[in-house]
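Tip: read the tokens left to right.
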């Protein structure tokens, strides 16, 4: 009996496959599973199936065994690579919007994967069984088939396009945070950006290798890139598992209707002066900005106005987003505390906390933005001014 020998690359692919399916089972078995868990599981399963597909073709022991059964089994899992891009995008959407629900309309994102059997049929019909069987040891026979070529173009375009869409979604989400929350500490997670960036890097590398092969470059470039991306997928997958286990439950999204109804040019044409006065009074007299967790929703409820109305007033009249607006009044309050305590009986950190800030970086950033000097320098200048007078 011949021994089956796996190289390091094969072991890496096998490990990725096992991890994908095990973590998917863990996600789907959770009692508190939601849309984000299901979409992440779909994404991981698609990566696992794509990895199996790679092993079927590039792992010699498996390749020989599978092609003896049927040469067409190689195409059976090719659809999986068309599932992962929309799955990652929708997973990102389900994380940033806390009231997100998957709709039938969004299932259209998976149409390319559902349509793949047509491509598979055209590839097989155009090559014939004998030629297709020979392609198991000669990738160029498969690579230069026009229908397989079309599949590769669709695959690369989908992966890169959905990566860009995911990045734009996160960028939009960051803006919505500033429109709805006065404290974004712990909400503006960077791990999703890291995941999307990693996915884009992997598929960008694959696309670059693909273009180089089209341009007649040595096949060695493609082989090196393919092997390197397998290791990158291994790192990428374990990064997903690590961050999802440690951070996803802490991720606070914005409401989907907040995101859709956030400040825009068509929202409120006329701003009532009474509403402007009410917003100003809530800051000066009621000092709602002292609540570190104050949100646009809470401020709107206090004023008995719609979130859209309050958001429009803050943006158009005060020319700030909600985050900047609240922090402006916090800085003004901090200036008063510093001026009243130049003898340093109260520390700068106490000033920060008593002004509604719970982030030192945000406090320093906005104090310097509005006062044009750091809190420590401001206290020093106020003390010198008092001595002079």
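Filled-in amino acids:
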């Amino acid at each position: 009996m011949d021994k089956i020998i796996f190289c390091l690359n094969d072991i890496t692919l096998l490990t990725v496959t096992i991890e994908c399916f095990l973590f998917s089972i863990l996600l789907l078995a959770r009692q508190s599973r939601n849309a984000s868990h299901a979409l992440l599981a779909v994404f991981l399963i698609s990566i696992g199936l794509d990895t199996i597909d790679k092993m079927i073709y590039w792992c010699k022991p498996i390749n020989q065994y599978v092609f003896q059964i049927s040469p067409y089994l190689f195409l059976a899992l090719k659809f999986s690579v068309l599932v992962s891009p929309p799955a990652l995008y929708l997973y990102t959407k389900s994380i940033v919007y806390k009231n997100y629900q998957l709709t039938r309309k969004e299932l259209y994102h998976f149409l390319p994967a559902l349509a793949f059997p047509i491509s598979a049929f055209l590839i097989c019909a155009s090559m014939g069984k004998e030629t297709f069987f020979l392609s198991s040891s000669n990738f160029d026979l498969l690579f230069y088939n026009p229908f397989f070529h079309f599949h590769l173009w669709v695959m690369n375009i989908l992966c890169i396009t959905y990566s860009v869409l995911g990045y734009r979604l996160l960028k939009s989400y960051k803006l919505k945070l500033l429109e709805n929350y006065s404290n974004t500490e712990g909400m503006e997670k960077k791990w999703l950006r890291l995941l999307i960036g990693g996915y884009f890097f992997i598929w960008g590398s694959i696309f670059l290798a693909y273009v180089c092969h089209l341009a007649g470059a040595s096949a060695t470039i493609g082989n090196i890139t393919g092997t390197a991306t397998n290791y990158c997928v291994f790192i990428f997958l374990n990064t997903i598992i690590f961050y999802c286990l440690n951070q996803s439950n802490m991720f606070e999204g914005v409401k989907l209707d907040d995101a859709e109804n956030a400040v825009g040019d068509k929202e409120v044409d006329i701003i009532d002066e009474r509403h402007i006065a009410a917003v100003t009074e809530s800051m000066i007299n009621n000092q709602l900005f002292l609540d570190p967790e104050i949100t646009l929703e809470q401020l709107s409820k206090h004023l008995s106005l719609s979130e859209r109305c309050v958001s429009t007033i803050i943006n158009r009249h005060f020319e700030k987003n909600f985050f900047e607006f609240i922090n402006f009044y916090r800085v003004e309050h901090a200036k008063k505390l510093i001026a009243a305590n130049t003898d340093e009986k109260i520390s700068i950190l106490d000033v920060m906390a008593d002004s509604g800030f719970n982030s030192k970086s945000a406090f320093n950033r906005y104090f310097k933005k509005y006062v044009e000097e750091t809190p420590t320098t401001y206290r020093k200048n106020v003390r010198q001014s008092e001595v002079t007078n």
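The two ends are 98 Å apart (CA to CA). The CA atoms of residues 67 and 198 lie 33 Å apart.
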